[in-house]
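User: Before I run my own analysis I want an independent prediction to cross-check against. Here's the chain; please return only the structure tokens and, at the end, one sentence I can use as a sanity check.
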Amino acid sequence: MGAILLLGLAIFSKATAQKKVKHFIVEKTIDLPADKVWAIVGEDYGAIADSHPKIINSEYTRGSLKAEEGAERMCYFNEKGTQYLHEKMIDFDPDNMSFTNTVYKAGKFPVDPEYTIAKYKVTHLGGGKSKISFDMQFRTKPAMMGGMMQGAFIKLIKNYMVSIEHHIKTGEKVTKDNFKEIKKQYNSEATVTKS
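Assistant: Structure tokens:
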């Protein structure tokens, strides 16, 4: 009887320890072959600053030298380096052009790293087109900011997808200074699913 009670308490404790998270998926069709999109999103993992309008600098860290299982990167969002995300690549699957990005540490960002992950997937559509999918779950600190941050994250990812397309087509680094003009050149429509 005591063992059953302990098991019940353990299950109850685990169930109540689950935190509520926000979830969304952003998908966009891009007029580029999947292998070119994967080269930027998956293979060039440490250089995300070249194709992201809000990240001013990025680099591999902790001995990581290339995109692979366990690779880690730092993404800096301000010159001082106080706003950053330390991220880790897991479930790296280059054959299926997908990986999961976990947040290891967040400097001055209101996200809880333990509950913040994003799955990247690039799909070949044929005819020189591909689809990029970004499936994210997150929890904010404090939790009440979740709704507000979800809208900001969705906008950020939609802009990132436009930036990827521009960077591949031109080789130009996308920055917060040139993004406004870049965005005018591309279709920024994307499918968004929230849950």
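Sanity check: The mean pLDDT is 91.
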